[in-house]
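Appendix B: complex inputs.
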Amino acid sequence: MNQDYIQPDNWCIIEEGFDAERVKSSESLFSIGNGAMGQRANFEEQYSGNTFQGSYIAGVYYPDKTKVGWWKNGYPEYFAKVLNAPNWIGINIEINGEELDLAKCTQVSDFRRELNMKEGIYTRSFSAVLQNGTEIEVNVRRFLSLDLDEAGFINYQIKPLNKDAAIVFKPYLDAGVHNEDANWEEKFWEPLQAQHTDNRGFVTARTFKTHFTATTFMHNTIVLGGSPQTITPQASNSEDHVAFSYAISCPQGQTAAIQKIGGYTVSMNHENTQQAAEQVIDQALALGFEAYETKQKEAWARIWEMSDITIEGDVKAQQGIRFNIFQLNQTYLGKDSRLNIGPKGFTGEKYGGSTYWDTEAYCIPFYMATKDQQVARNLLAYRYNQLDRAIENAGKLGFKNGAALYPMVTMNGEECHNEWEITFEEIHRNGAIAFAIFNYYRFTGDYSYIPEKGLEVLLGIARFWHQRATFSTYRNQYVILGVTGPNEYENNVNNNWYTNYIAKWCIDYALEQTDRVKAEYPADYSRIMAKVQLGDEERAAMQKVADNMYFPYSEEHGVYLQQDGFLDKELITVADLDKSQRPINQKWSWDRILRSPYIKQADTLQGFYFFEDHFSKEDLAKHFDFYEPFTVHESSLSPCVHSIQAAVLGRMEQAYTFYLRTSRLDLDDYNKEVEEGLHITSMAGTWMSIVEGFGGMRVRDNALHFEPRIPAQWEAYSFKINFRNQILKVSIGQNETQFALEGNEPIRVYVFGKEILVEPNGLVTV
Amino acid sequence: MNQDYIQPDNWCIIEEGFDAERVKSSESLFSIGNGAMGQRANFEEQYSGNTFQGSYIAGVYYPDKTKVGWWKNGYPEYFAKVLNAPNWIGINIEINGEELDLAKCTQVSDFRRELNMKEGIYTRSFSAVLQNGTEIEVNVRRFLSLDLDEAGFINYQIKPLNKDAAIVFKPYLDAGVHNEDANWEEKFWEPLQAQHTDNRGFVTARTFKTHFTATTFMHNTIVLGGSPQTITPQASNSEDHVAFSYAISCPQGQTAAIQKIGGYTVSMNHENTQQAAEQVIDQALALGFEAYETKQKEAWARIWEMSDITIEGDVKAQQGIRFNIFQLNQTYLGKDSRLNIGPKGFTGEKYGGSTYWDTEAYCIPFYMATKDQQVARNLLAYRYNQLDRAIENAGKLGFKNGAALYPMVTMNGEECHNEWEITFEEIHRNGAIAFAIFNYYRFTGDYSYIPEKGLEVLLGIARFWHQRATFSTYRNQYVILGVTGPNEYENNVNNNWYTNYIAKWCIDYALEQTDRVKAEYPADYSRIMAKVQLGDEERAAMQKVADNMYFPYSEEHGVYLQQDGFLDKELITVADLDKSQRPINQKWSWDRILRSPYIKQADTLQGFYFFEDHFSKEDLAKHFDFYEPFTVHESSLSPCVHSIQAAVLGRMEQAYTFYLRTSRLDLDDYNKEVEEGLHITSMAGTWMSIVEGFGGMRVRDNALHFEPRIPAQWEAYSFKINFRNQILKVSIGQNETQFALEGNEPIRVYVFGKEILVEPNGLVTV
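Resulting structure:
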């Protein structure tokens, strides 16, 4: 189902024509969110065709119990599911006695969806002929407010075209929702109270087990020909449901509308969620729909002002990068350090949990460069706040003395990924969490985070690696056995080069920072040492592991080996693999994948990406040439790294191909699964492909470096970087690069190593 | 729960005293079976304490669907569960208006269970005081007939001790049973019909999905003071239940009894199961309870006549081996080639499926030497009959051209083990299936099986190994990647020595037999070649793999390595492991087990057991000394192999310790899990420990060889071998060995290599 129905457009995602087969895909692609909540683009009105109903509240989850026949010791007891929240968007419509249902109309024409990414507004319009012969035109406008982030707004307009219409608007709230991925067909929500007054409805429900209470609310206004109407609705309640029924006569050619305000107030933020809901409604009504729509456009304009990337001469590439940036901002805005960036954001349920190593490895660079640096600091603090849980988690696996293993997946700091051994094996995640601390300091220059919080995290992680390594008398070196690297198409391997390398680096970096904090922040040092009790003996033992780590290497090929035994594989390149066998994760049995040489996502090359400065360009070329031919990129997180490295190596055609693949992964549905939701975290990789890949941006010695390149297909592109509270705009054409600075102080940048001074509010062309 | 409540006895398993905590363990230990059906030793009467109700019919299973979050391609859709069959043993008892329930009596005394292994009869007796003050004595006698193997017999006697008693016997049939291990709390049986006439009751039910129909039946006779009574029962039916109610007044001191005949007739064996059930009842009544009890003793005497092993001077060792031999014969008698030897027999549900490599690796030698050789041939034919399914199974994993991969676990030839990658990885099972063919011919001299059936199996297996091996250009040899060897505490390893070794052997043996069949059975050869289409090119390619197989070897230690990378492990011996860490499968997380050096069961040493003649005794000693110290024996299949090898190496104390562990594994509950059922297949390993270990029996060049040894704790032991239709009895004392032959022709045997002639019905002392 490699779709191509999305119209190319610089600012909008557009679908034209109604196709029931595309409904679930479009529900994913047209999803909207505001960081606090989000929803798939489900129809407001009844729809009896195939649909995947989804509405989500940030931070609200459910620990679904898991059943596996051969349970492995150490598995967590549950898998935290992103929880389908009560439905507040529902508005059933009756026209001349018939229920409006696009699956049942005799004709649907001019069907159009548009997600205006510039403004953050989703619209849908169509004309339809009902079975009773009534012809109508429908226009729906919907947004989740960035300003009032517990509220969403819907304006649902109906114009009868060929006759007068008796229209009944039936807006409702429904907490009787379930998760598509529930293991036990259990109910996740316990209804507490459903009530209504005038035009307001409220359903309060509490999640089982986690006890999040949420009040789902609505307020409705009926409008005829532009004038608000006073209609007393019929109302009905059940324990988890509130519904109103507004009957209105609409003459042919006039427009009847319902303006529904709805959303959630949650016990994470309020003691009395019902009272809070009343206040949100009051606030929303005080200014009204149009004022919030104006604010919405202004808020998105502010986001784009800083984070937009323009591409000239390639509308599909432009649409792709904006879609990625838009979705990242819909998912996470960095306001709340209790939240994180779920792999599907608010667009689906698959994967569960909210936090993977994706956050540190892929997302932080984007947020760091396009937001206030507090946002990245919040993301780091999220892990600091969960350090005790990471130490507990390591304890469950037999580690001691403050060793920390951050979970594979989490909602609250506990491991919540089970059912597969990689939970225990994919420990490289710990490395990315330490790397993010290094990266944050490198980019922002804000060292304060390390004495305040970062060092404790670094030491917990270093202790883990120290204890996790094994001394091999045979090799007279330390080895790390039984891991899964970033490439999940290998399980339980020994000496994954990436893991060994980042383990060594983590220990070295933690000990270096310990020394620096001791020298420069003695009070913090004393506080931390009193807590973590790091003795000289342990320090020396840790250093010994780092200094004597084993790295598998092939003299013959002159490359580090992804893991021990990689050369035993039958090294047939992807190019020589019959196309009918792809994607191998759908065509091959798991054992065949495991013993094949095929790489799901950058693994050794991920190490070359993180630690680029440790290796020469020749080294990179050698490793890229060795591993790229075996990489199938069946993870969304893979092509961006290869795109960056191809750009570094000056292989622009290849870099461009990888760029398109990463930026339009969902729009063009490369992996044939967009129905299930979008790949949010890899979207930050797309941003990196342009800024770090084509733009060649790096931070070295407290300065920005660029090696600008441009794909042949583009006329020009531009991006902005918030570098230490000054905004640098970089515009790259086929022949020149311009730097413009919004700030107060001049800034040194290096272009291909040559120093350039950019003056405040000045422009430099290279 | 290391129990020691079973009384030592040469012929009986005896429990004295009632302990509610032991009920589930005793239900396992006192299980009875007759090859066609079996049951845990559940009480007949109501019991409200903790119990695990289990009744099983050979060959009747249910494909339970499985749910795993991260499904791997290639997993089978279901896990075949050993199905809990309808209950026919139930007899509720009312005494003076009170329900008899041992959990509710005010006093229980003289409680005794006895499983008489010599006779195949299980008895239970106790005295009890009911809450209403009635004192009673109860004696129950139960057996599953070996002669009429669809029927079981119960004689349930009650004697009121302190007053007259109004007794109501309420025998019933109940198809509303469930499996303890059901994944979905689904019902597995669909009731079709429940009916009764006179004293007969019938419930016919059909399994969902597999559509086995079983009629569960009963017939009841009430006896007072030895005289059968004519009492018209009250009867009640529901859709899955039939119950009778017989009221009788029993004077103090007299005995009232119910004789219940019950059992199953199944659609595997009958077109009309209800009619068949009527006939079984007729047959049972024609001779009656006592006659069938006599026949039962005679049938078990015949079994013991051939398969008994006597041990003098060590009652616990004697009880252990008889318990093992008894259970094997209760589980499988070799009459029906559709059946096989489930790992828990009829004593529990855990593991599911009926057939593992256990059959070929452990059970066949026992059945071959203690039964008519047709029985072993039936076990081989079971795999031949499933060859097409094994080829299909390999096809699902991407293998072609007739390559066969026998399932990890099966009921009907299909793979039914899922939820864990070893399904795909533990492919060494294929090797044991080929080895059994070789072993059958070696032992019986019956070559005819190979041209008739065996060669096709051998070639399917050889093709699998050929395709499964990978050519490593790096090693310039063939490697086998991504396997799990017999030691399941290693997963997804490369070049497991045992697997590589047996793979090479399978190819060599298949090609040798192809040549022999071509030369000696040209008609069979043509038939087989027309079917399997083995060309010269494929043959040569197969041979090349066998000739160039890679075997990991350590020069330093002079041993083959269990797999690549074994020496990277931290080689701390089990002796140096803190006892609090054992058993590691309960104390450690799975990842820690995987990267440890600890060996769950003989792996490299399993290869030395199978291919003993390929290696010198010095080689064996070196490998035993290297691997034994890392072996935790947390599989029931492990100690027997180590016992045999310790005996071969003359380390009798160690051999004896392993023997006790294997023979009393369940009686002494070494693994703390006997509640779940018995370890049936490993019991054949116990037999091997004595015959092949202590007795040193081998077959070489069509002759029996012995190297008799005896543990210091024993005065003497003896066993019999059916060698090519002559029965050789071997009696081994501390100073001499006697051979006695029941047969027609003299037989040459070798004792420590020295030839000895044993005449028919003669006796030789060495």
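The CA atoms of residues 358 and 681 of chain A lie 6 Å apart.
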